[in-house]
Amino acid sequence: MTTTTRRRRVGIAGALVGAASAGVAAAALAKRYAVGRIRLRPDNEASEPFGELRGRERTHVTSDGMALHVEIDGPEDAPLTIVFCHGYCLNLESWHYQRKDLRENYRLVLWDQRSHGRSQRAAAEESTIDRLGEDLAEVIEKYVPGPCVLVGHSMGGMTIMALADRHPGLFGDKIRAVALIATSAGKLAELTLGLPALLSKAVHKVAPTTISMLGKRGALVDRTRHAGSDIAFLITRYMGFGDSKNISPTVVDFAESMIRATPTEVFADFYPALMNHDKLSALHVLDPVPTAILVGDHDWLTPPDHSKAMAAALPKAQFTEVPDTSHLIQLERPGVVNDVLRDLVKRVEV
């Protein structure tokens, strides 16, 4: 190879690297520009006190030694308690709008599921949906003196199903009604996430290994997650909200901050439990009590077909499919969710 040829190839390689670097820089600049423009839009929720609502804080130590953060809100002498169970990678603050709407008239119990929010981290083998059901049973026993209504979003709905499977006797006298919001009774491993069938199949094939690997490097991944907050903002906005163009940037920031605060190891520990979740056969336990099922029509994570399957198993349930709405429905359409909950509570008030 002549010196001229070698220089030419080196020059071409350098140009390619330079072009690639310029492309990455341009993409980063475009991302920041896009996020900046979104944040500059009029925002009706800019002054909303997210994360500032407080109740009477308690710590419950479970039968297997986990310290769970619990908050009790509303009048202590209210005849009915509403228990809120949050979703995967969220915490009790995700019920902000529902808490704000209901705390004046009802006694509320909100809790951080193990390894989430301010609750203690559990080992991987203790990160199961059945164990969450046992945690909920203990929370009810300790903090709910009378009848109650259970409300679960996503993984929180699965927690309620696990409770029904393991403690069916609670439903009817103690538990008077249930709301299952953006959740599933099973077959999450078959989700397409909006991808073509072959691509979706490939993603599901590699996902468990990839997520397990990320979990083992959780501390390193968490440091990079904080560095990529603009990307996380855009992903949360796109995946979590159906009407992403009009959703408040403050609401997106609030949701993304909860997700980012959940360690990668926790995300990895609970992933197999969610993929293996199958409680369709336990739904009959809910049949005697009023049940509301809500889902957004653009929910990619727990699609409407999953809620429709639950509604088919519970023909007396009230089923609501909310248009232009995705997985974080209680934050995106709080008015709709609050109306459904108030209607459900009125049906069982004592």
From TrEMBL:
Signal peptide residues on this chain, from the entry's feature table: 1-30
Xref: InterPro entries: AB_hydrolase_1, AB_hydrolase_fold, AB_hydrolase_sf, TAT_signal
PROSITE patterns cross-referenced by the UniProt entry: TAT
GO molecular function, one term: hydrolase activity
Gene Ontology cellular-component annotations: membrane
Domain AB hydrolase-1: start-end pairs: 81-334
Keyword hit for tRNA processing: no
Keywords: Hydrolase, Signal
Protein name per Swiss-Prot or TrEMBL: Alpha/beta hydrolase
Naturally occurring in which organism (per UniProt): Nonomuraea zeae
